[in-house]
Amino acid sequence: MPRHLLLPLLLVAAVGASGGDAGGERTYIVRVDADAKPSAFPTHAHWYESAVLAASGGGGGWPEGGPLIHTYSSALHGFSARMSPSAAAALAGARGVAAVLPERVRCLDTTRSPRFLGMLSSPPSAILADSDFGSDLVIAVIDTGISPAHRSFRDRGLGPVPPRWRGACASGPGFPPGSCNRKLVGARFFSAGYEATSGRMNETAEVRSPLDNDGHGTHTASIAAGRYVFPASTLGYARGVASGMAPKARLAAYKVCWAGGCFDSDILAAFDAAVADGVDVVSLSVGGAVVPYYLDAIAIGAFGATEAGIVVSASAGNGGPGGLSVTNVAPWMTTVGAGSMDRAFPANVRLGNGQVLDGVSVYGGPVLQSGKMYELVYAGATSYSASTCLDGSLDQAAVRGKIVVCDRGVNSRAAKGDVVHRAGAAGMVLANGAFDGEGLVADCHVLPATAVGAAAGEKLRKYIASSTPQKPATGTIVFEGTHLGVHPAPVVAAFSARGPNPQSPETLKPDLIAPGLNILAAWPSGVGPAGIPSDGRRTEFNILSGTSMACPHVSGLAALLKAAHPTWSPAAIKSALMTTAYTRDNSNGTMLDESTGKVADVFDFGAGHVDPMRAMDPGLVYDIAPADYVSFLCNLNYTGQNIRAITRRQADCRGARRAGHAGNLNYPSLSVTFVADGARAKMRTHFIRTVTNVGGGRSAYRATVRSPEGCNVTVRPDRLAFRRDGQKLSFTVHVEAAARARMEPGSSLVRSGALTWGDGRHAVVSPIVVTLQAPVQ
User: Mapping DSSP to helix (H, G, I), strand (E, B) and coil, where does residue 133 land?
Assistant: First the structure.
């Protein structure tokens, strides 16, 4: 097939896959070669408008201001506009157009975490002291906006705004001029893409300004770079000193998420503005798309930022515990999964038969009557809709004054509590299903409520089913407050998305995990902690869970590393975080998977749990230049047009494909998939890697290999002698796997090991992942 026909066909396929109306208009993102602008047009915008008009047959009827929604000039070159699929396909073949992408709508995926990560000490820990707490770095938070008056964002004691900062502070409702300061140095909002699809926003429910009226953006921003605040708590839980990872780093808020979601065209506009403004780190807690990188707007925006020297940290998604659920998987992003800390909020269910079922909650009262046992009812006894406690599904007469058991799923956890509360129940137990496993998330419910795992939920349902009118099932909820020093910790959160990487299994994803379960951070004054309209309570901090909370932990740590090592590239910073991560918990066992209670693996935690203190001095780093990503994309068999859509570069892939395979990207992990068809006794591959000495001066490292089961791994050379700081040396890793005699068709077998380079002071660890895939018959 001719290459010039490939993109329009992919475009049509993508439109169908993403739910677009084949006959109507929708938003497309158009990537162009900036140098191709004809001289007849005075500006790029004039050229873009003309191109849209031509592709659309010269039609009019454009919204006020013309057909363009956004124009992009920093992270990428191009624009977004509303078009029909036929016009978009025509535009894809126009001169100077690199790619046409259908817009997708994305979703939004601390008092204890600094101490848990070993960063709170007196005197300050090395990573904080050596980086001056990140004081001259700017972290961009692309999210739901920010609450500027929060104590976490005060600027007392901070020096002047870095002179290289070029950003702006937009004003609007609830965000008057002067809302920014030396801490919150910039704030912008992007809604044109959202409104182009959904119509003009309802300004009685949404705020056309950078103000956060959701809470998510304020929460993530304070995790990354909130100031020290004491006292901090949520409804009396998790009392202590709240602090972000980089407490003196500057923040820039880019609001892209609205009631209808987070639209690609607005996200790209935020990336474009962040690059132009001069940020150092981008923190993105927004769900990705499972599409090739050249059709993924987040991957494209992140590449432009990375090329500009900006570290991009992104949430892995909350699709766990199922495999192949990880998102934001481009290798130029740091993809962050979620783990627990050594803190818990127990709220156990005590049954009338004497059983006690473990649960969690951060409900603040008033609690259930002490000593009283309440009748238990299972909402699903009547219908499926009632089982998940959907709005209007409960019989008030049947639940009034009782504790209602609801199943997880369909509507939000807080919304279930609201439904049960309005029905007149005394309390609620939220029970996991089999897919959710034993993973528990503590919520700020509007009534006495707790969450229990799948096994406890099954016991609870059976207990209720065995009751009779003469002997009803009874129970109560006992709220135990905050427990510290919990073992084991960390564990991989059940919701945290898992690998393997669905787009390029040669790069292990997620890259690592960070605290993301039950994280306390800043909260807007106008939003209730349950996050639902009926919640009239107000709190300065809130406890949330998600990879959205894990991502800004790494964003803040990346800012500290960049402040301490200003010459390090984004890839070097990621390498330092990955090769120093740990995989053992505080009980000295391999980290567990919360959903099953069993040992977790590399597709759950990647390289491991982030270790800030060790990342400060990793010894060696695996560096990657933008041109290396081009070779990687060549070896994924992307066309020149595909690669140009991502990188703005013309790619001649002949040399890259002769030189190796996609696994030869200089990544801090090594991953290979063999097709175990039984035709060969052995399966072999090799990886070429280059490490840079950042440990200072002369040093000698020796390789230690823990081979995956059934594999033989050798490293040549197995000794690296460095004469100076900054020197680069290369080595080759040979992997040989034995085919298994019997594997079910379509099944896979995963084995993991590790390569460690050590000099007696540093241990530079890279996971080795070997997957045997049986062909589908």
Answer: helix
